[in-house]
Amino acid sequence: MTVIYFTATGNSLYVAKNIGGNLLSIPQILKKEERKIQDDVIGLIFPVYGLCVPPYIKEFLGKVTLQSDYIFSILTYGFYEGATGKELLEIGRKNGIQFSYINEIKMVENYLPAYEMEREKKKRTKQEIDSCIEKIKQDIMEKRHWILKEGPFASFMTKCHEKWYHYHVGEGVTKDYQIADVCSGCGICTKVCPMGNIHIKSGKPVFKEQCMSCLACIQNCPKQAIHLTKEKSEVRFRNEDISLVEVIESNNTLN
Question: The domain 2-165: what is its CATH number?
């Protein structure tokens, strides 16, 4: 089994590690010219952004070839997933990918512009998350065929969010970034950015225009030196079972 994942704060990587198999991160796959993946079972695990499939994932699915009789996907989300499963199913069909199984897992919401981290950490326990993972893992072992059932309201909400979507690759949230004096110029932000969008100049991070608003740079800064002008919390989040090294190994596109 091969499990493909994308992670910024460790949530999706935590799920991927617990599902098991040969883990491949999307940023590392995209660095290679050969993007054909073949296995008896292939999984795709990624976070929901704004009730939608992130454009980064859409782009990836258009660049990769997946060959398997059983392809599953697990969507990780915090507040509300909308009709992301339905959207993913359609994206897959357009790219010749037939999903046999799509499910979701509610994780700790960590979108700083809208949520206070200390409060969100208390809303979702590790036991609840692990219980969901085990149920889904059993489904996958049995090669169960099942697609998320999402009603008209979920579809309406996802379409509304698509209309005012702000996760398109570009300037992203970087226009609202402020760098505190405690920044040491360590370069961690350059290594956790899956887009290679950050470089260090005169000891401070400089952001280009390939941001997808994943907030990996903010959440993983060891000095908590990167801030949003309108963030709800100064507390940062990374899944407690995922190390900074693992996020770097997943996302570093600089070498």
Answer: 3.40.50.360
